[in-house]
Write a structure and sequence with these properties.
Elements: E1 3-8, E2 13-20, E3 24-29, E4 36-43, E5 46-51, E6 58-65, E7 68-73, E8 80-86, E9 90-95, E10 102-109, E11 112-117, E12 124-129, H1 135-152
Antiparallel strand pairs: 1-2, 1-12, 2-3, 3-4, 4-5, 5-6, 6-7, 7-8, 8-9, 9-10, 10-11, 11-12
Length: 153
């Protein structure tokens, strides 16, 4: 049993699911028929992988620097950066640029994660049941969902 969760509300949200075998994370964002596959592996410099297919997807890279998770989604010219600083019971960070980005905050309670991307009135909530998936990998899946929602808007 792996990670399960939701980004957004019931009517306008995305299902999140994934498994981690110690070396490779495979997951899905969205529904069974209309979702997008996520796959990344851990390497010497961090995590590298792909979200979506060859023609309609984007690359993913992430690394841990102390207590900070640094994420880059996309290519060199069309990429989006995000970062999160982890504490003992949660994390705070930012997605996107300084002027056009969104704040990310979350709290971790014994395998369950609840958080918000964006502001109080215009943000979206998310929830994750991690089970056996490490917290940074679950958060990485949420950041990928944010990028997918940005592309749809």
């Amino acid at each position: 049993m792996g990670l399960q969760g939701r980004y957004g509300n019931i009517t306008h949200g995305l299902d999140l699911q994934g498994t981690f075998d110690g070396q490779e994370f495979t997951g899905r964002i969205g529904s069974f028929t209309g979702g997008i596959d996520v796959k990344f592996t851990s390497g010497g410099a961090g995590l590298v992988g792909r979200v979506g297919g060859v023609t309609r997807g984007f690359d993913l890279s992430a690394s841990v620097q102390g207590r900070r998770l640094v994420i880059h989604l996309g290519g060199l010219t069309d990429g989006t950066d995000a970062w999160l600083d982890f504490t003992d019971d949660g994390a705070n960070g930012h997605y996107g640029t300084f002027t056009a980005g969104q704040d990310i905050s979350l709290r971790h309670y014994a395998g369950e994660v609840r958080g918000r991307v964006g502001g109080y009135t215009s943000g979206r909530d998310f929830r994750l049941d991690l089970n056996d998936v490490p917290l940074p990998l679950g958060v990485l899946l949420v950041v990928c969902a944010v990028r997918i929602e940005d592309a749809r808007a």
